[in-house]
Amino acid sequence: MTIDSVGLPDFARKAINLASAGLGARPVFATDEFFAPLERLLQDCPAVFHPGVYDEHGKWMDGWETRRRRGPGHDHAIVALAATGRIAGFDVDTTHFTGNYPSACAIDACLAPDGPDEATAWTELLGMSPLGPSAHHYFAALADGTWSHIRLRIYPDGGVARLRVYGTPALDRDRIGDDVVDLASSLLGGRIVVFSNGHYGHQRLLAPGRGINMGDGWETRRRREPGNDWIIVRLAARTSIERIIVDTAHFKGNYPDACSVQAADHGETDCTVDAALTASSLYWRDVLPRQKLSADSIHEYGPDLIEEVGCATHVRLNIYPDGGVSRLRVFGRIARAGTP
């Protein structure tokens, strides 16, 4: 299985959800939250429905839901993105909202590092677009730029289960300078490109912090055939790898027996053909030779184990034969322009 096979639009497959609460996105303001709070809109897990569950305001719904308007106007909400970045597109998900979804939505964005105020200039990234019941609605962003906040407008009222804002974090090279940083981090722009299997999930492998449970990482099915599982990550920038961390937090009876890491330099331009990248990865150089792993542990590999392979833009984490890894960290300095 590859990420391509899930049928998402290109911007959703090749970008990061900047509105992920798990990455640090947070609610800022909503005109109304009577039936369901704005914070649910940003949750990473799929929306759920609990028949017969009510709270003091009415039916419990997994998302953001406003009361029924009885006058002019429309509702809106403002969200601080997990990282300032460029936005490629959106998923406005109305799952389980069948008779109470908005008729339409629009989305604006701004760059306001200290938070938006009444003087903030907003740029429309999505004009008014129709919504339907209990469905994912994918929309491409209409304007380019670097943004810190988005404003979701719904017409006139109703509920949205999840909002996903697909984009790329802005890498502040001047601020980072020559510091050693985790260039696999989602918050800097590292992203998963393709993998052999992700039956129990993969999205959180590059997230900040340690995993909170066994579902917070990358885990494959039990392998019943020869070979091993693997996952390929595009780093946020070219680097000479200095340190690697493989964390098996919470994986106790299902951690891999061993791991290794390969690396390759594909330059600053993105390789857009996943099948070609997968094929070439079979011959990438070992930056970390095969190492034994243990349960529920942080495994740190420094200069004594890291092989010199020159600059790298991609890494391939191999696990033997299968199992779960909570986090992958790849530390290095951003390569300067012209570095061979």
Automatic annotation (TrEMBL):
It comes from the Bacteria. The keyword Hydrolase applies. Residues 24-169, 189-334 form the Allantoicase domain. GO terms for molecular function: allantoicase activity. The keyword Transcription does not apply. NCBIfam families: allantoicase. HAMAP family: Allantoicase. Belongs to the allantoicase family. InterPro entries: Allantoicase, Allantoicase_dom, Galactose-bd-like_sf. The lineage of its organism: Bacteria, Pseudomonadati, Pseudomonadota, Alphaproteobacteria, Hyphomicrobiales. The gene is alc. This is Probable allantoicase. Its EC number is 3.5.3.4. Pfam families: Allantoicase. Pathway: Nitrogen metabolism; (S)-allantoin degradation; (S)-ureidoglycolate from allantoate (aminidohydrolase route): step 1/1. One of its GO terms (biological process) is purine nucleobase metabolic process. Keywords: Hydrolase, Purine metabolism. It catalyses: allantoate + H2O = (S)-ureidoglycolate + urea.
